[in-house]
């Protein structure tokens, strides 16, 4: 019985991690990279063996400055119009 409870809890953690990951990708689509990074970090805490979560987080962390500069440039162009 105790093992079944642990498996259920692990499954719930994995489901929650998957939801964090999916939400993070949606935030990226909305150009909310810092928020996406926070969700990816939470997903990794819940599912530390997930390579895709780690690789995605590393990619966004490496490119944070690019995204930030791109958004500033884009908002400047919008203001000029």
State the main characteristics.
single chain; TPR repeat; TPR_rpt; TPR-like_helical_dom_sf; disordered N terminus; mainly alpha
What does this structure look like?
The protein is mostly helical. Helices cover 88% and strands 0% of the residues. It contains four helices and no strands. It has helices at residues 2-29, 33-46, 51-62, 64-80. Helix 1 packs antiparallel against helix 2 (33-46). It is elongated and about 50 Å long. Residues 1-7 have low confidence and may be disordered.
Compact description:
The protein is mainly alpha-helical and 81 residues long.
Order of helices and strands: HHHH
Average predicted local confidence, pLDDT: 80
User: Helical region count?
Assistant: 4
Largest sheet: number of strands, sense, barrel closure: none
- Structural category is mainly alpha
Strand content: under 5%
- Ends apart, CA distance between termini: 65 Å
Helical fraction: over 70%
Number of strands: 0
- Unreliable runs, pLDDT <50, ≥5 residues? 1-7
As a whole number of angstroms, the C-alpha radius of gyration is: 17 Å
Shape: elongated
Keywords: TPR repeat
InterPro entries: TPR-like_helical_dom_sf, TPR_rpt
TPR repeats: 17-50
